[in-house]
Amino acid sequence: DIPIISGVEVNRGILLPESQNHIYYDVIESIFNGEDDYCDYQIGMTGIFSFLVGYALGLPPLYNVDTGDAGVGVFGLMDHGSNNGRGVIPAPPTAWSRINAGWVDPILLNENGFYEISSRNIYDEIMKIPISNDEYFLLEFRNNLANENDNIEEIRFQEDNSFLHWFDVLTDSLPELINLTENGIIESVSNYDLGLPETGALIWHIKEPQILDNININSENRMVHLEEAD
Length: 230
Known about the structure:
Blueprint: E1 4-5, E2 8-9, H1 28-31, H2 46-56, H3 95-100, E3 107-108, E4 127-132, E5 135-142, H4 152-156, H5 166-173, E6 178-180, E7 186-189, E8 200-207, E9 224-229
Parallel strand pairs: 3-4
Antiparallel strand pairs: 1-2, 4-5, 5-8, 6-7, 8-9
């Protein structure tokens, strides 16, 4: 029977694993053989939760659902980007996904000129350059800087070529970018582009899919294809 909780019929839900962390299991030494510091193998649950919420909201997957091969990689929530930032800074949906969901209207560019585009985390602007009736480019700007000059990985890097622990940098060096609960759980992040590898322009080549099912199954002819990340 469908459960009723506080008078509300619960007819759907999301099934989550108990944890994505391996460091508390007694097989940790076998999984990471030869490793003596497991702190950087911690993975948060936010990414997989957001990924499954994306499915619940009707966002089409952008990886090959038959093989698991990446279609847009770390640059989109509905692909490997769901686990960006150790699973606590999942990538936002791609420019195409946000337009397709009706969350943003693109700025249409029909003539030559000089144009300014805002960073996605400041004001979500996407520029659209038509090619044909069902084919076009999308241009957006993504910013992963944790301070004025550096991203999280650059802040981690030390002069002796070692790296500070990722979560230590996030919680100790960049507390202004995150919200923590009383128990030290990362509740939210100021900018979900922080988990991207770099800052810059993304140029997407879109062939408008007719069926929103496994639209990037053909690696030689993806419907949503990242042409350039610069």
